[in-house]
């Protein structure tokens, strides 16, 4: 300790600029001013893949709710619809009822596992190619490039003084963005409301205030995030980059820079020798084309969305200097290390975590398919009357009341026969359908609806077993012969 103090005392004191206090020289800003990213246009394999993904995904989104699908009865003739008012979900031939929300849970689980699986294999391909933020940002930036020019022109255009021409171009750009955002919100609304009727109501001003409110909110969010926030959503708002590293391993394919080959970097002219230097010519093309504005040469970063545009840009530069492609490439960490050592590379797509994800996807898919293929077309719900639990009749018999609901999940009208078992001598009286107690009753239920019936069951005291006796309702579909049973209790003297 004494030696350390002695050295510290003999060390020269740091000089500071005159006229500044010591605390002023130590202060530094914790925040960096925002610098707008101007991504440069590029052509190549990954750019083409992004165009294809954008066209396909936007096509599916905008066309989806307009696909017709013939359904029986009063059900909407729309292939894809989450009918909140009618409490139904329609997806082509699949119809989901409120009590079957677990199918939606299954879809979400399957999507999550699928995302983990793809990330473990190919890195952030979701972020770079199929994320809704990426797709709409690509579309908005494309509009901006068409009106204002490529990177350098847009930068100069934004710095130039406001003129009538600049005002007109900016206004037109904002108008097109607003039209795209409105179309996006409109389409979103008709995924939850009948497409034709809702569209006519919106266009003619007859839609509800709620629909116009949601339309404005969704359009505003789309306009803000895709038009102005852009890469800030990926860097600061999206949670996925913050835990995606847990999905990676040394064999996951990610966008990487071959530092061992590119360094030391430096400016070069065409025809110059690259002996005793790296292949990177420090042209910064990889930075200029990046939609988030990062430098991939600094290593893997949270802001990298894995779109591969820097690969297209770097490959073009390598071609210009007659150098091997792949200085920036889509590869695994293990292969990068192997190349640096001159060892052979290999791709390990089948490994522990990918097998686990694949097995989980198969299991979830199998469970959902089995559930859909064996789902019942009719369900029963019975509610016993609580006040009073039972009523003694003048002839000495005991009567219980029930609310009996039949869910007919078929498009056509059905007629069911209702019987009881478990109590000898029990009779039924269905309010509005039978004039007197009967052994069995017919219950008609319209297609794709819930039939609600008020039922009284009467039984002799001698057939009861104390305060409660097991009773079974037996419902038979007259058309298909399908039999459903529901166990309940019949209350008698002594019940509380």
What is the percent of helical residues? 40-55%
Q: What is the radius of gyration?
A: 35 Å
**Main sheet summary:** 5 strands, antiparallel
| Alpha plus pi helix count | 17
Strand elements, count: 14
Mean pLDDT: 88
What is the straight-line distance between the termini? 84 Å
Give the strand content: 15-25%
How does the overall form come out from the CA principal axes?
elongated
Low-pLDDT residue spans: 1-24
What class, by secondary structure content?
A: alpha+beta
Q: For this entry, what is the oligomeric state of its chains?
A: single chain
Describe this structure in words.
This protein is an alpha+beta fold and 496 residues long. 42% of the residues lie in helices and 17% in strands. It has helices at residues 2-10, 22-26, 45-63, 102-122, 125-130, 132-148, 151-159, 164-189, 195-204, 209-229, 231-237, 240-243, 259-262, 285-289, 309-320, 333-341, 352-374, and strands spanning 80-83, 88-91, 94-96, 254-257, 328-331, 378-384, 391-392, 398-408, 414-421, 427-430, 441-445, 449-459, 468-477, 483-491. The strands form four sheets. Strands 6, 7, 8, 10 and 12 form a five-stranded antiparallel beta sheet that branches. Strands 11-9-13-14 form a four-stranded antiparallel beta sheet, with no helix packed on it. Strands 1-2-3 form a three-stranded antiparallel beta sheet, with no helix packed on it. A hairpin with a 5-residue loop joins strand 7 and strand 8. The chain is elongated, with a radius of gyration of 35 Å. The protein starts with a helix and ends in a 5-residue tail after the last strand.
